[in-house]
Amino acid sequence: MTPPKDRIVVDNPRTWVEMLHQIQEADAALAAKSEDGTVKPLLGQVTGQDRPLAGDGWVRPYDGLDIYWTHATGAHEVHGEIRAKYNALGGASGPLGYPLTDETGTPDQVGRYNHFQNGSIYWTDHTGPFHVSGPVRDTWAEQGWERGALGYPVTDQHTPNGLTPADHPRLSWAVFENGAILSTSDGRSVAGAAKISSDDMRRVVRRFFDEAFHTSPDNVGLHPPVELVDVSKWSYGFWNASPRVTTFALHGFHDNGLWADTDFKILVGLTFRLVWTDSFTEPTAKSLVVALEFLRVVGEGNSPFGGGFPLVAAEVIAGVTSAVHARFFRGGPDPAQPEVPDGSIFLASLPTGISQHGDGNVDVLDVMTTAAGGLVVLVNPLPTAPVDLGLFRVNQAQAALNAFVNP
After folding, report:
1. Fewer Cβ atoms within 10 A, N terminus or C terminus of the chain?
2. pLDDT digits (tens, 9 = 90+) for 321-347
């Protein structure tokens, strides 16, 4: 081990003999780990000197990974996206502490993880690397980890800031592929959910496009059926995974007068999410938006142009494509709702019920598209006694969703 150039600051003074023994123990453990058959192919070149860390910890950095050691935890490596997230959270000096495992494949053979002293980071190529800890992780473990109904985490675990130095909100939650887990001063639990079914989502999407076409001067309309074609997986993100994309097929027509109608099909990919303006304090309300992910308009009928006079039909398809794009893309944020980015449309405002005083409180956690193509609002399920506030929140959110589906 090459001695560090910087002076070692020792919080708990030990004799030089004790320190020498520690350095020798760390050196031997780091060297042995670097020769491990699963670790050695990942190493690359050493990129720096061995560094002493908090407590009796040491780290040896390489191109491909970092090896950490303490007397209590032993030597373990961290690499790839998990390493990047671990470093972004402060590494061994951050909230997770030292690694307790090497990066390891999950039992379902889809993802990877490292366990740390105070939590874990889980990664898949379709979600990204996200950390969970404490009671939230305990509840996820009880649910079966990634093989349970919730799936993998799609956000880092979040704890709101206190509004004053005396405030330490006992409030933390993480969102997973199929739900959320919340920990509060009242306990810990899987989030409650108010739901819009996939059939109702098809009706909502049809109404949205039907209203847009009725205001259009192009004399276009929609036939009744709307099909739910596909629901994607979550997509990779480092800080937040991107939500599922739902693909709908809508069938429309253009009245050509004496000519046959021009029939067309709209294939549209949409995502639903909450957005808000970033600030130190948690938002008291978040905006539900729908974003256009992709669009394709094609002709239907007995010709490639969807019937009718070909030149008119081609113009109709181009016009419908342009009109839908213009509905979503304004060239900047929504002037009336600045938190709504270009490419998205504001749908509704959802009060979060957030409090950052004392132990803290929250009512609404997030929204997500389900794997079946429905939409759920995830709410705080606690406490359940002496009054079941969780059930009250679900019923309140469900009433709002029902009014959204049937205005």
Report:
1. C
2. 998 999 999 999 999 999 999 999 999
Q: How far apart are CA 352 and CA 366, in angstroms?
A: 9
Query: What's at 270, amino acid-wise?
Result: L
Chain center to CA of 317: 35
d(CA 189, CA 194): 16
How far apart are alpha carbons 182 and 158 in whole angstroms?
10
pLDDT in tens, 74-107: 999 999 999 999 999 999 999 999 999 999 999 9
Determine the Cα–Cα distance for residues 74 and 32; give it in Å rounded to an integer.
11
Q: What's the rounded Cα separation, in Å, for the pair 379 and 393?
A: 7
Classify each residue of 89-108 as buried b or exposed e, where b means 16 or more C-beta atoms within 10 Å of its C-beta. Answer: bebbeeebbbbbebbeebee
- Contacting residues for 221 by C-beta, under 8 A, at least 6 apart: 210, 213, 214, 252, 253, 255
CA distances from 39 to 1, 43, 124, 282 (A): 19, 7, 20, 42
**Residue 164 burial by Cβ neighbours in a 10 Å radius (0-12, 13-18, 19+):** exposed
Q: Which residues of 261-296 are buried (b: 16+ CB within 10 A; e: fewer)?
A: bbbbbbbbbbbbbbbbeeeeebbeebbbbbbbbeee
Could you tell me what percent of the chain has a pLDDT over 90? 76
Place of tokens 């150039």: 5
| Distance in angstroms (rounded) separating the CA atoms of residues 203 and 171 | 37
Q: pLDDT, tens digit, for every residue of 156-181? A: 999 999 999 899 899 999 999 999 99
Q: Look at the block and give the residue holding tokens 């109702």.
A: 200
Helices 389-405 & 198-214, crossing angle to 10 degrees? 40
Mean pLDDT of 189-193: 98
End-to-end CA distance of the chain: 70
